[in-house]
Amino acid sequence: METDLRLESSLWIGNKRYRAVLTGWHLKWTEADKKNGDKKTVSVPVAEVVGVENGRVEILPQKSVEDTDKDFTVFYIKRSRSRSTYGLLWSLGRTQFSCPSRVLRDQWTNHLRTALKTHSPLRPHRLLVFINPFGGKKKGREIYHSLVAPLFELAGISSHVIVTERANQARDHLLKKDLTGFDGVVCVGGDGMFSEVLHGLIGRTQQEAGLCETDPAVTLQPCPLHIGIIPAGSTDCVCYATVGVIDPVSSALHIIIGDSQPLDVCSVHHASTLVRYSVSLVGYGFYGDVLAESEKHRWMGPLRYDYSGTVVYLSNRSYAGIVQYLPADPLLSSPKDKTRCLSGCNVCSRSTERLFPHTSDSGSLYSSHFSQYSNDSEGEWVSVEGRFRCVSITCMSSSCARSPLGLSPSAHLADGTGDLILVWDTHPLSFLKFLYRHTSTQDQFDLPFVEVHRVKAVRFSLPDGREEEVHEGIGELNRAIEEREYVDTVSRNGSQQQLAQSVVERETMNEHKTVASILCGLCCKKTPAVSVWNCDGEILPFTEIFCRIHGQLVRLYARGIEDGAAMQNCSQESDKNKSRCITYK
Ligand SMILES: Nc1ncnc2c1ncn2[C@@H]1O[C@H](COP(=O)(O)OP(=O)(O)OP(=O)(O)O)[C@@H](O)[C@H]1O
Ligand SMILES: CCCCCCCCCCCCC/C=C/[C@@H](O)[C@H](CO)NC(=O)CCCCC
Ligand SMILES: [Ca+2]
């Protein structure tokens, strides 16, 4: 394979001569006419070549083509360090080569295009794109048309674009419409938009597999279509944790070269109905109250979380609850092992073996998925009860702009487990220390009132099952009315007159109850007995829930966070004497 694709010749970049070599896996060009010492070599893996065009071509910011017959342009992935994040920024590298003859030029473009074909089965050719025009700073359409569409066109990708007119349009489309011919789905928006596509694809895949999502014990079928995220939201936490940067061009390039990053998904059930799926955070207490409070201030945009975070922090609330969890195998990994889930993570690749052991007949690739949840390997449930500041379950680190290392810095994207973080009730200043450590690299788990467990499933319930009570206040009121009614019943044997009296009183009390419940709901002075669940930025309508992690249920066009540090000792344009360049994958 490699031999017949080999091509070597002199090529010119501007007025400098280079020695260029194409093998099956790399395109390299080295400055000729220079002493060995300071030869500049650029080496690009063929897997990272985005496109080859005849002539001298520009793509971004505007497309321009100078069609000559001795020139050709190669577009490829160029990495650079980003100031604010761990991940590496990807941009479109472009080199315009000149040949001595048209024949040689055609030879180069044909060889390069043939080499690209060896990678094309992994690359998408047709994508379904949903744009949320209202997410984040309302720039979704502009971002797609000015930055992403030109790259898709260069890479020969055709896309069907839908600008959504209402919430849940993307989810409904994926549940109902014909999806044949699409290699993947792209959402241009934030976490909420991603969540819509996630729910649509998971629901559709189970429909087509004849599986029932509402059964908490069902083993869900992994989704065949990949999901691409073009970040255009407020938190963009999923994009941040899977790509490492919030940048539309980087995300578009990961989609174009067909990167594939499996992702764990947490299903949330109440009784025996499916409530929602989560990939980032299922949070009760602080994170739930912050989200509930922020819903009243949506007009603030992203700032609503900072304002609400402060208000909720100052309200100093804690909640009683019973948490039961099913620990994952502690020998595989632990939330405190200081590992980081990065591109090529071996904890995740090892769990791929565990989740999808290579069965003999590859046709039933996913049938082995059932083995993962066979009850005998379930293990022992652990139960804890008490008052908590917050209870969080996160399938991934949930790193985002607010918290560079995330809620659980050593969580893994695709290891089939989630991390359960229990923050017991504690002094307000200690809780502030816990929160503050999220904004730096200090260990937020190294506090006496914090415990974290790697789990496969979690159940949350209220002590003595007070599921329906919304606020303590109402509870007391209810009790008063019940007692009153009790008193009434007792007095019922009294005179008719008394009975009539008590009926009138009860009516009044009921009115009070309604009024009080409204007041209490609006701005209850007393701390409410229950909080709400924040599920990837959505508030759940239930308090008692059952969560379960489904390993690698979906795939993203990403490769995990590339370790920027590895980039240190070499750049794409390698420096003197360091011709070797780090290639990922
Ligand atoms: N055309 C639309 N009109 C109104 N709402 C929409 C529309 N399209 C999508 N939505 C809903 O808007 C919500 C927010 O969108 P999105 O997540 O893209 O932005 P965001 O909330 O600002 O970002 P993040 O979720 O990262 O904080 C989503 O839950 C989505 O369901
Ligand atoms: C004194 C300094 C204190 C600073 C507070 C530090 C704590 C930051 C942790 C942030 C973790 C966010 C997890 C991401 C959740 C997203 O799926 C979700 C949807 O976009 N965002 C929120 O619910 C938004 C929820 C935002 C909560 C703050
Ligand atoms: Ca995980």
From TrEMBL:
One of its GO terms (biological process) is ceramide metabolic process. Residues 122-272 form the DAGKc domain. One of its GO terms (cellular component) is membrane. It comes from the Eukaryota. One of its GO terms (molecular function) is ceramide kinase activity. PANTHER family: CERAMIDE KINASE, SPHINGOSINE KINASE. This is Ceramide kinase-like isoform X1. It comes from Pundamilia nyererei. The lineage of its organism: Eukaryota, Metazoa, Chordata, Craniata, Vertebrata.
